[in-house]
Amino acid sequence: MIEYWYIFVEFFCVHFDELFFAFCTTLIVSAAILDIRDKNYPPGPMGVPFLGYLPFLQSRAPYLTLTELAQQYGRIYSINLGSLYTIVISDVKMIRDAFSTNGFNGRPPLQINNGLNEGKGILGSDGESYTETRRFVGNTLQTLVYGKGGDPKSSAEPKIQRNVTEFIKDLKNHAGQPAQMDKLVRHHVGNALAEFILGTRFEKDDKSWNYLQLVLQERFRTHTVTNSLNYVSFLRSFTKYANIFKLLKESKSRSQKVFQEIMDKKSQGQVDSNNVQSVLDAYLLEIQRRGKGNGIFAADNVQHVVSDLVYAGWDTTIASLSWLYLYMAVYPSIQERAALEIEQVVGKNREVTMKDFERLHYCKAVILEIWRHRSIQPLGVPHGVTERQKIGDYWIPKGSLVLPLLYAVHHDARIWPNPEEFRPERHLNDDGSLLFSDNLLPFQIGKRACPGEDLGRRIVSLFFANTVSQLRILSPKGSQLNADDVPDCGLTLSPQPYQLRLENRK
Ligand code: HEM
């Protein structure tokens, strides 16, 4: 007994500093939690010191744990992620009201998601340079989508259609043998986006292209909002986590290098103001016009913007189409109904256009139902509170993180009866016309809502409808695909890699 006592005293003396620090921090965190709970702050479960509620979240499906908590604590509740005070909202009206208010439209201080960007770019930045960047990027994307002065010839559609044609040609080459869909979708949809963002296309065997795809996939996996590395800085003193962080930093700077090489190549020539083909062209033209690149037009910021657009645009658009193709193989009757609608509206001898979509209600409903059922970004993209705010009767302190829990919104049985059923008809009126719901938020809402929405919708619609119109999408011979396998959950939710069998319809 005396020996144990001796060991304890010795340990206490040697580690006095660390123990004192841990004691004080626990006291401060607990005091802060109790303080918050005393005042009129949203209810929620207690976590543990330093880690908050992180250890209790399902690692592969944190959105399910958070949805269960919403059932217990209500449509707005609070938890600690690490020691970051977090508000989780699954009520559309509250999300809408909050995100239309300036004080709710910052980004939280997440060490991986936003910290690696050092406040640059668009996705993770705040303040004046963010506002300027957002305006420039938003206007540029609108011109690229609708054409200069609204001229359809310079709009996004012909460019997307060329990529769709290449994609279908490639799929037809696989007719009869299994096609590895995740790879094919990544290459062709990724290329369509690369044209709008970088003004360039890549061959399948291009080294930089393959590297970018690898880095992006890695980023999708690690950049989940609930990754402990986002919150708990002392984890970086452990070799395993320090290595992950180092790898992320290295891969980021290597992909920035690829973007810089493309910029250097492009800036050797003059950009024609009548022929701006990509966001990068628009930046180079502005730098040309100003005579130098500074402020938001400095090379470093442009690299970050381009990288953010690639990151935000690729993953979401590719995930949307990957789910759509998988579901068409799993639900053949839904696929046949979509194909029949296209045949009746468009016929068999031409491509499906965006104009056709005014009458392709069922096809539109299938896309909306994928965005609901699969909730491509189940935790939404988190916002940061820049000034103390109020929602309903609750106060939200400055510096909080706000999670719009889109999965819970899209699976709320009070809004969507039998939410686990994949049923496109729920988006149709009795007369077959489209029923728009305010409760579907795939692009989020408010001042920071996705600036790539119009482009994303066009790419998803044209790739999906033209593929279904020309090819029958089937499970590989001898196996039945399943849409219920646990998906890959990073910032977005993607299906596990899968193969399909394709048959010509025409
Ligand atoms: C189906 C496709 C897409 C979906 C479902 C989607 C969804 C979203 C969501 C939910 C957000 C978060 C908004 C917020 O913080 O309130 C977002 C932000 C963003 N998206 Fe998209 N997106 C898609 C396609 C695209 C495309 C094609 C691009 C670019 C070409 C893009 C660029 C961005 C950017 C830059 C942001 C950050 C905006 C900001 O912080 O101000 N997205 N997107």
Structure commentary:
This protein has 506 residues and is α+β, with helices and mostly antiparallel strands. The chain has a single domain, classed as Orthogonal Bundle (Cytochrome p450). It contains 15 helices and 11 strands. The chain has a 4-stranded mixed β-sheet with strand order 1-2-7-4. The termini are far apart. About 1% of the residues have low confidence. The site of protoporphyrin IX containing FE (HEM) has 27 residues, from α11 and α15. The site of protoporphyrin IX containing FE has 27 residues, from α11 and α15.
SSE layout and pairings?
Elements: H1 2-14, H2 16-38, H3 62-73, E1 76-81, E2 84-89, H4 92-99, H5 127-146, H6 156-173, E3 179-180, H7 181-197, H8 207-222, H9 239-267, H10 279-290, H11 299-330, H12 332-346, H13 361-373, E4 383-384, E5 389-391, E6 394-396, E7 401-404, H14 406-410, H15 453-470, E8 471-474, E9 488-489, E10 493-494, E11 499-504
Parallel strand pairs: 2-7
Antiparallel strand pairs: 1-2, 3-11, 4-7, 5-6, 8-11, 9-10
Helix pairs in contact: 6-7, 6-15, 7-11, 8-9, 9-11, 11-12, 11-13, 11-15, 12-13
This protein binds protoporphyrin IX containing FE.
Residues 99, 122-123, 134, 197, 308-309, 312-313, 316-317, 320, 376-377, 380-381, 442-444, 448-452, 455-456, 460 line the site of protoporphyrin IX containing FE.
